[in-house]
Fold these 4 entries.
Entry 1:
Amino acid sequence: MQLDDIHIGMVDLLRRNGRLSIAALAEQLGISRSNAYQRYDWLIETGVITGFTATLDFRAAGFGVAALVFVSLEQNQWGAFRERLPTVPELEYFAVTAGAHDGMLLVRAADVAAIHELVAMNLAQWPSIKSTETVFVMDEQWDRVSLGAGFAGRALRSPGEWAGESPLGSTRHLRIAEPGEEDEGAPLR
């Protein structure tokens, strides 16, 4: 099964209000309750929906400052870095990146001094981190992309289909064949 417009609509509705009942989803999408249940279950079983969570107003919760901390890592230290990430209570999100830095942390704290302490006194001391660059978030406008933004109609891959791919945070180095070395059956390394 592939995502279709009804799946996308269901996900968008649930992202706005994760407490919607199946009956409300069915009504808003113009489908039967049975169809809504089947689609809802499929979205969970395939991993499109991984859970439900509360949406926070971070300022009201006392986390008035957000920053993006870009990190450059010692390449042989990815494992150690990943093991320590859960120890950072200010961490909301981490992504492996391409470009000048290896990763980006979205962190939140009460004030700039708390972010400074996190970066200068904590993260900068990790042997796995070569350098950091911190960018403060001035304003947040939108935190959600619609699945309708280009994913409709693409087949979902099961977890088994991901096997053999490089794990995130690992760099695959390829050797480029020199002219005359081409062996169509041999993979480049």
Note: The beta strands are 65-73, 91-96, 103-109, 129-136.
Entry 2:
Amino acid sequence: MKDNIDIEKIDRYLMRLYYFGIVVIISSLVLTCYYYLKVDFDDMIKKVKLI
């Protein structure tokens, strides 16, 4: 019985780690895209003001 409980705890912990990892990866990708788009957008605004 004790072994089963330990395995369930480990499985839950691994699932949490897995989901946490996915969330971190997605959020970092979104932030990176946002950062690059924001930089491009700022550059475009500067070019438009120059013209």
Note: The chain is about 95% helix and 0% strand.
Entry 3:
Amino acid sequence: MNKYLTGLIAALLVGIGAGVWLSGHPQQIPWTLPGLEAAIAAPVKAEGRKPLFWRNPMNPAITSPVFTQDEMGMDYLPVYADDGGAADEPAGTVKIDPVTVQNIGVRTVKARRQAFSRSVRALGRVIADETRITRLHPKTEGWIEKLFINKTGERVRKDDILFSIYSPKLVSSQHEYLLALRNLKTLGESEYADIREGARQMAEISRERLQLLDVPEHQIRELEQTGKAFKALHVHSPFDGIVMKLSVSEGEYVTPKSELYRLADLTKVWVQVDVYEYELSQVRVGDKAQLTLKSLPGRTFEGRVAYIYPYAEAKTRTIKVRLELDNPELALKPDMFTDVTLNTGLQQDAVVVPDSAIVRSGEREQIFVVRAPGKFEPREVTLGQSSGGWVQVLDGVKAGEEVVTSALFLIDSESKLREATAKMLEAAKADQSAGGAELDMQGMSMDAPDMSMDAMRLDSSADDGMDMGGLSLDGGDRP
């Protein structure tokens, strides 16, 4: 039993000693592959260039003066003095080899000059022209004898008879006029001028009263010719139009407060368009507009902006814009909905690019311009109006310059990385020109002294040695 225990302890001590010795002499491990240690120590070759520093592959703000790895085991990337681009290149310029350009699907289009108009699309509703609506009220109380136009929506012509009304006041006014005419005939030959003038004025006043009560001219002439009063008098339409509302029936008693007919001339109509607040600044009185209706496919109606209302709708947050259109065929009917396109001014010489070429960050807009094959420069631009997938460029890009329209996310990310690297390079170069031996990154001073493992030793002295039955292991200093 003692021999077995002694042998086990001896084997254990031999194993520990061999492990300690091999850890101090890795070059003597027979199964180590030649060059493996060098490949691990420096996995990225400088290819004749000396890196200024090394950066974290996931976060460029984290740097190191020597090669290292991050917490996930990813190698730090070298940063050289010429990684910031040439001195005459703007910050953020991206260089991509042709194979990568093809693989990520970079597409370009040339900026061009063309006539450009901003179009605002909105929904409109047809309404009657308010200046061409008439509400008919009787001028005196009475009873409706007959309705000649008795249906809503019926079309009427100017001077068509709408209805006849019996009114004692109208009959009395007719008799007064007939009496004035007889007096004029009797006293018109008087030798006194005052009497003759008084009779003439009385006849004129009586005739004018009938006109003010809307007695038609043809009935007044017939009254003068026959000398007999009419029981019912006719009321005529004042213009060509449509009966929009009928509010009376035959035999009904009416007063001047009663609205009998509502007539509208629809040969000219209005269209009210709801325009959003952010588009209102583009709309001007006089702008042309095109209207289409689903009920009339293939037809387009032309109109103009006549008025912009001075208030917004509280619920929809839109502003009403009024269009005026000719409607001779009455194809546009009140309360029909239309699709409206407002052409808000034409510019003959505008520089435009596709909308897909714009990179919007929320604070600015920029475009990537092709400086050379595989080289893309970011430019901040000032944009104008947009329409039909094209955007007007007011400043930043000239006509004929080639702009990137696809793979913008990848190029923009690389551009931001290059710009950040260029700023760090400027700081590094400034430190080197000052003669400093340290590399200061984000307030952290990092020295790069010689890192040697020679000072490390395993010593089994009386204080920390391993004493196993009188046996001690002293590693001593390694050569």
Note: The domain at 102-113+349-406 is CATH 2.40.420.20 (conserved putative lor/sdh protein from methanococcus maripaludis s2 fold).
Entry 4:
Amino acid sequence: MSLHSYHHITNFLKNKEMNEIYISYGIFSFALGLISVFVPIYLYELGYSISWILFYFFITSLSFVAFSYVGAKIVSRLGVKHAMLISMPILILYFLGLKILPDWTLLFFILPVLRAFKMILYNFSFHLNFLEHSNKKHRGGKDI
């Protein structure tokens, strides 16, 4: 097979900004996935039942929907890259909150909202950054 049948590879290498987005998102998602898979196990070991753990993630989803409009306004006011940057200290606060959760049980209801707010800031910023730097001709095509 020739390289011409894989022309999306050459398109991938041309755009430096898109390469940075792909690499940073890949590393970030991998690291967050490695940690986040143990959050339900951690909550279970703290004594929360499975129904409470499901409720914890329901609060996250509900908060994401409830605060999406506010989050979009914040991203538009701060800018895409600054909103992504601000989402990282929020993520650190979330994990620190998980550490002190056994002492402050009220955090069980606050941490999902904090996680949802981080998700809003990062995801909206990531998608807007992707749209800004992607090639309109190749966006949504079969050879992304």
Note: The CA atoms of residues 42 and 98 lie 9 Å apart.
